[in-house]
Design goal:
The chain has one domain. The protein contains 2 helices and 7 strands, in the order E-E-E-E-E-E-E-H-H. The chain is elongated. The chain is an alpha+beta fold. The strands form 3 sheets. Strands 1-7-2 form a 3-stranded antiparallel β-sheet, with no helix packed on it. Strands 3-6 form a two-stranded antiparallel ribbon. The protein has a two-stranded antiparallel sheet with strand order 4-5. A hairpin with a 4-residue loop joins strand 4 and strand 5.
């Protein structure tokens, strides 16, 4: 989960260290401004080329078991893709030739 804070200068007081939490800071906007009321990027409101962006709070959460299983399954498919018909036919031909050579 990401949260754009109202903080522009991180300190130990306003960016309290918590488990599974990180802070991203030092970002700048070019050609845009951050509207804290609407919490959105808006057209640049100043003539400055760059405007400081507030600190972003990142909270890491654990996936549910079902989501983890699906993600693992998806990864396994990428690591071990199913062969195409052409690849299967080619492998059959290789196996046939190897059998003949024995």
């Amino acid at each position: 989960m990401l949260e754009v804070t109202d903080v522009f200068e991180p300190t130990k007081a306003n960016c309290v260290s918590e488990d599974n939490t990180s802070f991203i800071f030092g970002l700048w906007l070019e050609g845009a401004s951050w509207d804290p009321e609407s919490r959105m990027l808006v057209e640049a409101r100043t003539t400055q080329d760059f405007e400081k962006f507030p600190v972003i709070k990142v909270i890491v959460t654990a996936k549910e078991d079902e989501e983890e299983d699906k993600a693992l399954s998806d990864t396994e498919e990428l690591d071990n893709p199913k062969p195409t018909k052409a690849e299967l036919k080619q492998q059959e031909e290789i196996d046939r030739i190897n059998e003949e050579l024995r």
